[in-house]
Amino acid sequence: MQVLYFAWLRERVGLPREEVETSAATVAELVEELKARGERYAVAFKDMAAVRVAVDQELTELGASIKGAREVAFFPPMTGG
Amino acid sequence: MSVSVQAEDFDVGAEMAALTSGRADIGALVSFTGLVREMAGGNEMVLEHYPGMTEKALEAIEAEARGRWELQDCRIIHRYGPLEAGAQIVFVLTASPHRQAAFEAAEFIMDFLKSRAPFWKKEAGGGWVDAREADEAALGRWC
Q1: All domains of chain A in start order, with CATH
Q2: Interface contact B81, partner A, CB < 8 A
Q3: Beta strands of chain A (E only): which ranges?
């Protein structure tokens, strides 16, 4: 699946998006897999209270399923308007 | 339904004229224009967004507003990219037979844009703008 990062998550991970092969069932499991990839990911996902997630472009929670998802995006709280 | 996510500026008068042109059933037209305020860390900021999800989120907010109020039409424009202080950044236009629905729907749409549309502001000084608790709290009165 495609994993996307926005704002300071993109800066900390160092990538806007990447293709990820995963067996994770939920967003939270995917985050644990990503954190194990290295320091940049560990720093980006250090404070999960400051991270929001969308699965296939719908805002959701960390416990959400990612089975069959094409796109998972991580970003800070939104500041539109 | 009419939602635009664009880098270009917009013309408030032209948008209002386009929405009311050729019809006489609208009794109330409420418009809100958000501007970039002067910032401590320089007078430019960059607005990042999530192409694809942004349009869907704005369309969902518009659909929700139309479900709650009797709106005859609605227009939402949100800009992205580099923006200088004083620039127009967001525009909401609501039309209804009576003013209360138009006022409330415009406020509802802005409250949701603030913290449910995937935009992130970064000031020229280098810092990302933090989400404000007041913006999150503003959603509470609509739930």
Answers
A1: 2-75 (3.10.20.30)
A2: no
A3: 2-5, 17-19, 52-55, 58-60, 71-75
